[in-house]
Amino acid sequence: MDRPIESTSAQVEPSPPQQDPAKNTTLQVDFTWRKWKAYVSTLSSPADPLYIVHYQAWKSPHIIVKSATSDVTIGSGTLQAVSINAKFQVQGRKGTLKALKRWKTAYTHLSYALADSPDSPVVMTWASSSGFKTWDFVCLDEQQMPVAKFSANWWSLRKIGNIEFLGPKATSTALREEIVVTGLTLLYCMLLRTNSLLSFFGAIFARPGPIKKGTAGATQQETRQASDDGPGSRQEILDGKALP
């Protein structure tokens, strides 16, 4: 007599929920009016900020980015009353966000985060587009490929915006710190320009153009160039062609 076949049911443990990788490569910037600070955190852990942004309206630097865990200064941004350029500092390295156009949001800066050599920074370019709800700032590498997108909210009084990192170095800490500092500095530079008569005249007399790429003395060269706003060619930028 044949033995009846026993039915066995293997217990399959439920797999843990998959975490969206985009949540780890996208930062949100939230402002608190009570403390007059902004907190930068990942979308996956909004309660655990990575950086704290301090604002100083009446003295420079006007923006100071510190580590939320160690209180160490990551970088800072300084706006200028007349010049349409802005200055920044990341991990002790000084730089300039230099305007490529007088009347268009097009800026450039030298990046050490994507450089193959610490003595040879690469040129990064910022372009922008705006809609009814957001003002998007896109950072492009030397091949005009997007590496980060900062979507700032027009109407929100608390949620400043999100910074999304793109490409193979989306998880790079050095790039993240550089983009947080330069992106916030550029945002407030443009807000100042849209509300300041002095910046209007600064744009009229500015000499926009690309930053000259150097080697070991690039930072000093960049600073000298920013001090007199040029000279530079009227380089066309992107016009939205590489926007994601």
Walkthrough of the structure:
The chain has 244 residues and is an alpha+beta fold. It is built from three helices and twelve strands; from the N terminus they run ββββββββββββααα. It has helices at 173-195, 197-205, 218-227, and strands at 26-32, 37-42, 51-55, 63-67, 73-78, 86-90, 93-99, 107-111, 122-130, 134-140, 146-153, 159-165. The protein has a twelve-stranded antiparallel β-barrel with strand order 1-2-3-4-5-6-7-8-9-10-11-12. Strand 2 and strand 3 (51-55) form a beta hairpin. The radius of gyration is 22 Å and the shape is globular. 34% of the residues are buried. Residues 5-10, 14-19 and 215-244 have low confidence and may be disordered.
Keywords:
3 helices; 244 residues; globular; 12-stranded antiparallel barrel; 17% helix; single chain; alpha+beta
Q: How would you concisely characterize the structure shown here?
A:
The chain has 244 residues and is an alpha+beta fold. The protein has three helices and twelve strands, in the order ββββββββββββααα. Helix content is 17%, strand content 32%.
